[in-house]
């Protein structure tokens, strides 16, 4: 004959503990953000082709300019600067633009086309965590890129800036603004095949009129370019290098305004699923 034992606290505790252990705990948003940043970093560093071209291209360009302008004096064409004094901060600025605007817009378009964004949107990961992870990743890549360009410029006798707080704020704000614009442009791209063409269609004229390829001396063109995002970033970097200046608040305000515009476009237009053909 089986004796029934009434349930007690001791007999019910393990079951309660098991039930509690099986219930998933809500993840800390900071932990989720750290995980997303780590994921983006691992994805980047495990793609040798993307990694090499991201860092090698600015190094090759600044190295060529160093060989061309080595030992040259200040010239009126470069606003009284040597070629290396002009191009070191400008190439650093272009590398940030490429890492945060061009690559990000293309990557998002590809992830949307392949369904990665749609599957990601179906997970409990908050959208802000995903985009914040992308932003931090792009800032890290930009800092590495800029440090390499600065280092090569120093080898050719270019003095490094002294206001490193202003340098850091300029880099972070520039990267954030270009990331927002990259997400905004990615929102307007219909398919991944068109992404490089759309990105370059916007980027090339901006870089050209902003003095990234060579100094622009036309006053009207400089005025127009000064209202767009690339030239203010170039000017802020040039001032930090060549004038021993601090925070360039006007240029930073223009950058911040364009970052807000890009963010508003992204919020209104961003799609997680592929656009119907």
Short description:
With 277 residues, the chain is mainly alpha-helical.
Structure report:
It is a single chain. This protein has 277 residues and is mainly α. It has one domain. Helices cover 73% and strands 0% of the residues. It is globular and about 60 Å long. The chain starts with 8 loop residues before the first helix and ends in an 8-residue tail after the last helix. Mean pLDDT is 85; it is low at 1-25.
Write the layout of secondary structure elements.
Blueprint: H1 9-22, H2 29-45, H3 48-69, H4 83-113, H5 116-121, H6 127-155, H7 164-188, H8 195-209, H9 219-226, H10 230-242, H11 249-269
Helix pairs in contact: 2-6, 3-4, 3-6, 4-6, 4-7, 4-8, 4-10, 6-7, 7-10, 7-11, 10-11
The counted number of beta strands is: 0
How large is the radius of gyration?
A: 24 Å
What is the 3D shape? Answer: globular
What class would the helix/strand composition place it in? mainly alpha
Helical fraction equals over 70%
Low-confidence stretches: 1-25
Q: Tally the helices: what do you get?
A: 11
Distance between the termini: 73 Å
- SS strand fraction: under 5%
The helix/strand order is: HHHHHHHHHHH
The residue-averaged pLDDT reads 85
Most strands sheet: none
What number of structural domains do the residues give? 1
């Amino acid at each position: 004959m089986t004796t029934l034992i009434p349930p007690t606290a001791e007999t019910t505790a393990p079951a309660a503990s098991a039930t509690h252990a099986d219930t998933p705990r809500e993840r800390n948003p900071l932990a989720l953000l750290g995980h997303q940043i780590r994921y983006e970093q691992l994805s980047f560093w495990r793609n040798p082709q993307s990694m090499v071209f991201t860092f090698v291209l600015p190094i090759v360009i600044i190295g060529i300019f160093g060989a061309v302008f080595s030992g040259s004096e200040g010239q009126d064409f470069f606003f009284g600067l040597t070629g290396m004094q002009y191009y070191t901060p400008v190439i650093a600025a272009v590398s940030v633009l490429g890492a945060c605007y061009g690559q990000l817009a293309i990557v998002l378009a590809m992830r949307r086309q392949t369904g990665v964004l749609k599957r990601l949107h179906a997970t409990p990961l908050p959208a802000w965590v995903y985009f914040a992870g992308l932003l931090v990743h792009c800032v890290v890549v930009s800092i590495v890129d800029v440090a390499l360009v600065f280092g090569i410029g120093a080898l050719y006798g270019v003095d490094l800036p002294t206001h490193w707080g202003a340098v850091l704020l300029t880099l972070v704000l520039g990267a954030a603004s270009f990331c927002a614009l990259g997400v905004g442009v990615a929102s307007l791209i219909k398919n991944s095949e068109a992404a490089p063409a759309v990105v370059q269609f916007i980027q090339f004229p901006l870089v050209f009129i902003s003095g990234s390829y060579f100094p622009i001396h036309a006053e009207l063109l400089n005025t127009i370019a000064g209202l767009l995002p690339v030239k203010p970033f170039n000017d802020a970097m040039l001032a930090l290098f060549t004038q021993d200046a601090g925070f360039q608040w006007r240029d930073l305000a223009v950058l911040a305004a364009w970052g807000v515009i890009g963010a508003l476009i992204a919020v209104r237009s961003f799609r997680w699923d592929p656009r119907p053909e």
